[in-house]
Amino acid sequence: MPSLDVVSDVDMQALDNAINNVKREITTRYDFRNIKSEITLDRKEKTIHMESGDDVKVKAMTEILIGQVIRFGLDSKCLDFGKMDATAQGGAEIEVKIKEGIPKETAQKIVKFIKSLKLKVEPAIQGEQLRITGKQIDDLQAIMTQLKDQDFDVPLQFVNMKR
After folding, report:
1. Which has the least CB within 10 A, 40, 109, 134, 155?
2. CA dihedral for 48, 53, 59, 65, sign (positive or negative)
3. Predicted model pTM
4. Per-domain residue ranges for the chain?
5. Contacts of 127 (CB under 8 A, 6+ apart)
6. CATH topology of domain 12-98
7. Are the CB atoms for 121 and 101 separated by under 8 Å?
8. Residue-by-residue pLDDT tens, the chain, 163 positions
9. CB 71 within 8 A of CB 87
């Protein structure tokens, strides 16, 4: 019986490359000269910490980060921007969480959407991913195209398609 898994993963190497490009671009931009700006990736905590001289610079850094993330083929929905805070030195900082996995509420919405399509498939929630099984591979491909058109606030990838 054909099946496929719907997951929400982030390629950490591509994200690391995007962050390195942001660092490189910050060092070359005129508006960042003589201003201490830094961006760091914590792989264990799955967070990005950005800090700069003022909130305008931090906003510029977030825009650069989004552009680089998209350039490396990642979905910008995987970034969850927190609230901008002031630092002790008079600067600004922001914490960005990296979203991986499909939350249970979102998975339930996806299952409800799949069942509303009235195709002969059976979705099942397995932890932070979904497994969809069906009798025909065409139904699975139809599900894939329908899910790509919807916005569930998480980037979706389709893996392990078995015939």
Report:
1. 40
2. negative
3. 0.85
4. 3-8+101-162, 12-98
5. 101
6. Alpha-Beta Plaits (3.30.70)
7. no
8. 899 999 999 999 999 999 999 999 999 999 888 889 999 999 899 999 999 988 899 999 999 999 999 999 999 999 999 999 988 888 999 999 999 999 999 999 999 999 999 889 999 999 999 999 999 899 899 999 999 999 888 999 999 888 7
9. no
